[in-house]
Amino acid sequence: MPFMVNHKNTHSHHRKALLDALQSVEKERAFAPLRVVLGTKNIIRSSATLILRGYPSIICIVGFGRVFTDYGILGRLIFWLLIKLLDFRSALGFITENDEDYEWLSSVTKSPVYFTHGSGLDPSRFFKKVKVKSVRPKIGYLSRFGDSKCSDQVLRAARDLPKDRELVLAGWEITGSKYTDE
């Protein structure tokens, strides 16, 4: 199999579009062996092999935000170093699902950086063509809650929401009950 995909510790159904695309491309063209690594944990676990052996790879960064919010300056420095070494020795390109991660990666790597909607949902193409029955507009927010998801900003926005608006929150805590309690 030309593509070796490492997506342990990630939600496979969230990566369905990427996995389907790889299978489709694999059927159409022959490639030299290529490693595709999905997820920050998998990047950290496989980086030594990729860097030391110089295997050609595509690095898909998901869950990137927690590295920057939960591991402090040392975690950021270590991850920056891994990205730089992967860029120098192994990576043919990087894929990310977040605008800010795209900007950061583009500024620190020489390899191409691609932006994708990992869930398969492109919000710019989503709209609802129904009449609004309520006079009071509803705003929905669906996510896991935690520091890496900037949930504090959602709570701040909820507190500042005008009384003629309604906010509907759905999701679960990554750890603990900090946001549920609020």
Polypeptide structure, described:
The structure is a single chain. The chain has 182 residues and is α/β, with parallel strands linked by helices. Helices cover 42% and strands 21% of the residues. It is built from seven helices and seven strands, in the order βαβαβααβαββαβα. It has helices spanning 16-28, 40-53, 64-70, 72-89, 99-108, 151-160, 178-181, and strands at residues 3-6, 34-38, 57-61, 91-96, 113-115, 138-145, 166-173. α2 (40-53) packs across α4 (72-89). The longest helix has 18 residues, at 72-89.
Number of E strands: 7
Per the principal axes of the C-alpha atoms, what is the gross shape? globular
Order of helices and strands: EHEHEHHEHEEHEH
Distance between the termini: 49 Å
Strand share of the residues? 15-25%
Q: Ranges with pLDDT <50 over ≥5 residues?
A: none
Mean pLDDT: 76
Major pleated sheet:
5 strands, parallel
Strand order of the largest sheet: 1-2-3-4-5
Radius of gyration: 19 Å
